[in-house]
Amino acid sequence: MAIWLNKDSKVIVQGMTGATGMKHTKLMLGDGTNVVGGVNPRKAGQTVDFDGTEVPVFGTVKEAIEATGANVSVIFVPEKFTKDAVVEAIDAEIPLAVVITEGIAVHDTAAFWSYAGKKGNKTRIIGPNCPGIITPGQSNVGIIPGDITKPGRIGLVSKSGTLTYQMMYELRDIGFSTAVGIGGDPIIGTTHIDALAAFQDDPDTDLIVMIGEIGGDAEERAAAFIKENVTKPVVGYVAGFTAPEGKTMGHAGAIVSGSSGTAQAKKEALEAAGVKVGKTPTETAKLAREILSA
């Protein structure tokens, strides 16, 4: 089992013919991802050869879905075109759109997220500014290295791409059902709570690792959700314990304002909900290991 992505997922790449899209399409195919097409209106009708695998290019997401049955899109287009690309994916009603692009204006993200809601939320958006989603051994959509872990029974949801990779590597001997990088922008699509609910319902996920960071109140809201709805063990880590007030930390959403959004406040909220919180990623992995071996 897995959440949102599996071996049967048919993936299209918006922006496949750009340098970044080409690079990561090749890596995704190498991980066994079923990439069935790319989207570029200027190159429709062409094909791209990835080491012997011919991938067709379509003019629109709708055309790609009609021709291939695609149900996942991963978006690598430049930030000034990202809103239009996501809106196109929403209009085509693709079930999952993974937005890798960083540097998107917040009002653009707000616009396409609101648009998805008006259209009935038929498209789940992951991101933007995220590493994507991987179900090891089945499918990898985004930029997560596919060779740092294996299939297993841990579910991972993380704001940070780098910490996603580290946690997967730390627990590589146990493995993961699915790992989701939700991104750290002020406005994102899929949240910690969405992933927690999905992992709670996945019979093959035994433990959930949740990685947050300073800024906002997403982790506090996730703690309240865990307390009321999650029966599986959850282990957490919050990046930014030493960040001073007003300090940004990599992500646009990671800024402390007064006592709001501090790592300590998030840690306390999570622990009050029964979540074991590590002081470092390595300690967090150790806590997960101890729970699974108990």
From TrEMBL:
Residues noted as binding substrate in the record, renumbered to the chain: 165
In Gene Ontology terms, what is a biological process of this protein?
tricarboxylic acid cycle
Query: So where's the catalytic machinery, residue-wise?
Result: 251 (tele-phosphohistidine intermediate)
Sorted alphabetically, which NCBIfam families does this protein's record hold?
PRK05678.1, sucCoAalpha
- In the UniProt record, which is one GO cellular component term? cytosol
Asked if the Swiss-Prot or TrEMBL record annotates the protein with the keyword Ligase, the reply is yes
| Keyword Calcium belongs to the record | no
Family to which this protein belongs: Belongs to the succinate/malate CoA ligase alpha subunit family.
State its Enzyme Commission number(s): 6.2.1.5
Q: Which InterPro entries match?
A: Cit_synth/succinyl-CoA_lig_AS (IPR017440), Citrt_syn/SCS-alpha_CS (IPR033847), CoA-bd (IPR003781), CoA_lig_alpha (IPR005810), NAD(P)-bd_dom_sf (IPR036291), SUCC_ACL_C (IPR005811), Succinyl-CoA_synth-like (IPR016102)
Q: Which residues form the CoA-binding domain?
A: 4-104
What keywords sit in the KW lines? Ligase, Nucleotide-binding, Tricarboxylic acid cycle
Described by its record, this protein's role is as follows: Succinyl-CoA synthetase functions in the citric acid cycle (TCA), coupling the hydrolysis of succinyl-CoA to the synthesis of either ATP or GTP and thus represents the only step of substrate-level phosphorylation in the TCA. The alpha subunit of the enzyme binds the substrates coenzyme A and phosphate, while succinate binding and nucleotide specificity is provided by the beta subunit.
Supply one GO molecular-function term: nucleotide binding
Superkingdom: Bacteria
- Which named protein is this? Succinate--CoA ligase [ADP-forming] subunit alpha
List the catalytic activities from the record: GTP + succinate + CoA = succinyl-CoA + GDP + phosphate; succinate + ATP + CoA = succinyl-CoA + ADP + phosphate
